[in-house]
Design a protein that fits this description.
This protein has about 325 residues and is of the alpha+beta class. Helix content is about 55%, strand content about 20%. It is rod-shaped and about 210 Å long.
Length: about 325
């Protein structure tokens, strides 16, 4: 009968045996559930970085994957096909409509190449090309990109004068800033690609904005006056040239006519001279009579012979002398 009695040790062994069995039955489903939580899905526009005890293990792409759940493992999913955007010199407060912005003057005020101050806001678009570098190379990628973009823009703007920065130089500023920013980020090894640098608002500082507007207005007036003057010149100069050409042509025609008339007079005189040489007395008499006819055409004439001595002749001569004296 004593053999049928259990000792205290036997009772403890019995209890421990059943407790171990109970623990096995209880922990198995918990372990299964825990392992099932390691299943995760990466979206088509995502990549995931896997960490084992906080250390980088690998990067996986879209699809269904399994990795150690927390606290052993950790996974960080990021959209790598998305185009990200950072703002420099301003921040969007409300997308609206209407949109509201906050000016960050410590980022936007820059010095141009001719030592003028300009207020310049711009944005940077980029995408992630190396997720591991993007997450672990720098502590805060967003602020790093803003700082690098601001430094790049300041360096590029310092190469341009203020007038060029406000007008036709904007496209060159954007291109050069994009190239410079990419160089800086490649040195950092941040794992992003700069897609675009877009100027949002470029203007002089507010305290001198009105003065710049007045200068711009004066330049526009100057251009308008120059265009009007050129238009007037284009209208008047062809007319003046036409009149000058007409006057020259008329003068040349008059010259030609006078030369021909002079040549004709010379030829006529030479012809007359030839006739005169043939009969000098006859020609002299003819010329004398032609001149008398021309000059005394409208007067009463009495023709007498100078050889005749008579009272009538003396009377006529006396009357002629008296008339001459009275005149």
């Amino acid at each position: 009968m004593a053999n049928d009695m259990y000792t205290v040790e036997d009772l403890k062994e019995f209890i421990n045996h059943h407790l171990r069995f109970f623990r096995k039955i209880t922990l198995l489903p918990i372990l299964v559930i825990y392992l099932l939580t390691g299943i995760f899905q990466v979206g088509p526009d995502q990549e995931a970085v896997l960490l084992l005890f906080g250390k980088y293990e690998k990067t996986v792409g879209p699809g269904i994957h399994w990795y150690f759940p927390r606290p052993v493992g950790r996974r960080i999913k990021v959209k790598t096909t998305k185009v990200y955007r950072v703002e420099v010199g301003f921040r969007t407060v409300d997308i609206g409509p209407p949109a509201k912005y906050q000016d960050i003057s410590k980022e936007s005020l820059m010095l141009t190449g001719d030592e003028n101050i300009i207020d310049l806001d711009f944005s940077v678009q980029y995408k992630i090309v190396n997720l591991r570098d993007y997450l672990f190379k720098v502590k805060n990628p967003g602020s790093t990109i803003i700082s690098a973009a601001e430094a790049s823009m300041r360096q590029v703007v310092g190469m341009f004068e203020i007038d060029e920065s406000l007008t036709e130089g904007k496209s060159n500023i954007q291109i050069l800033t994009k190239e410079k920013l990419q160089e800086i980020l490649d040195i950092y090894g941040i794992g992003i690609q700069v897609l675009n640098v877009q100027l949002q608002d470029v203007q002089p500082p507010k305290p001198v904005l009105q003065a710049f507007k007045d200068v711009a207005s004066a330049r526009e007036d100057r251009i308008r006056y120059i265009n009007e003057a050129n238009g007037y010149a284009n209208d008047v100069i062809p007319k003046a040239r036409g009149q000058a050409k007409k006057a020259v042509n008329e003068a040349l025609a008059y010259k030609e006519r006078r030369i021909r008339e002079a040549n004709g007079d010379v030829a006529r005189f030479l012809k007359l001279y030839e006739n005169y040489k043939l009969g000098e007395e006859v020609t002299k008499t003819r010329l004398y009579l032609e001149n008398l006819e021309k000059n005394l055409k409208n007067t009463d004439k009495v023709i007498i012979d100078s050889e005749v001595k008579s009272g009538v002749l003396n009377l006529i001569q006396g009357e002629v002398r008296a008339n001459e004296k009275s005149n």
